[in-house]
């Protein structure tokens, strides 16, 4: 059996905050390493390039131009993510408002408990079929209106 020390028990909040702190440090170190690699990339790519964009043009170091392009791409991804999260929040708010008009789940469960249980039906039985071999199958009520003959 695994040894259950106070830091790895599920209900212990102290162990959870220690692991969160460790994750923050790991993320910080990874971000700093990425920043160092980015700075090295920019310093090694100092050749001037001509950049043209919607009629604007100018010269920039290659590393800076690529950095600007990457940041612009990240902003586009972030904007689409914000738009999606906003749409989901609006949908959830509408659903919550719609659910607010219905009875509480406890009342719905009481109503379901008082309702009679539906009768068991054979899977191969047609609408109106009693399960006897000679019975004629009747279409469901109202289906004649939806599917006119001829």
Walk me through this protein's architecture.
The chain is mostly helical and 150 residues long. It has helices at 13-44, 62-100, 105-114, 143-146, and strands at 48-53, 56-61. A two-stranded antiparallel ribbon has the order 1-2. Strand 1 (48-53) and strand 2 form a beta hairpin. The longest helix is centred in the middle third of the chain and has 39 residues, at 62-100. The radius of gyration is 33 Å and the shape is elongated. The mean pLDDT is 75.
Task: Describe the SSE topology.
Layout lengths: L12 H32 L3 E6 L2 E6 H39 L4 H10 L28 H4 L4
Antiparallel strand pairs: 1-2
- Classify the secondary structure makeup into a structural class: mainly alpha
Helical stretch count?
Answer: 4
Strand content: 5-15%
Look at the structure and give the mean pLDDT: 75
- Taking pLDDT < 50 over at least 5 consecutive residues as the criterion, the unreliable ranges are none
User: Could you state the order of secondary-structure elements as H and E?
Assistant: HEEHHH
Question: Whole-Å distance between the termini?
Answer: 74 Å
Work out the radius of gyration.
33 Å
Which percent range fits the helix content?
55-70%
State the strand order across the main sheet. 1-2
Label the overall shape: elongated
Largest sheet report: 2 strands, antiparallel
Number of strands: 2
């Amino acid at each position: 059996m695994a040894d259950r020390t106070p830091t790895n028990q599920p209900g212990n909040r102290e162990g959870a905050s220690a692991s969160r702190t460790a994750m923050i440090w790991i993320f910080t170190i990874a971000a700093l390493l990425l920043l160092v690699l980015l700075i090295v990339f920019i310093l090694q790519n100092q050749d001037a390039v001509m950049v043209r964009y919607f009629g604007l043009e100018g010269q920039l170091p290659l590393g800076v131009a690529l950095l600007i392009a990457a940041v612009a791409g990240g902003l586009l991804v972030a904007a689409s993510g914000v738009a999606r999260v906003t749409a989901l929040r609006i949908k959830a708010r509408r659903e919550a408002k719609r659910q607010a008009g219905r009875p509480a789940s406890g009342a719905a469960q009481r109503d379901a408990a008082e309702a009679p249980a539906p009768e068991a039906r054979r899977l191969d039985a047609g609408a109106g079929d009693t399960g006897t071999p000679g019975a004629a199958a009747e279409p469901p009520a109202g289906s004649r209106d939806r599917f006119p003959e001829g």
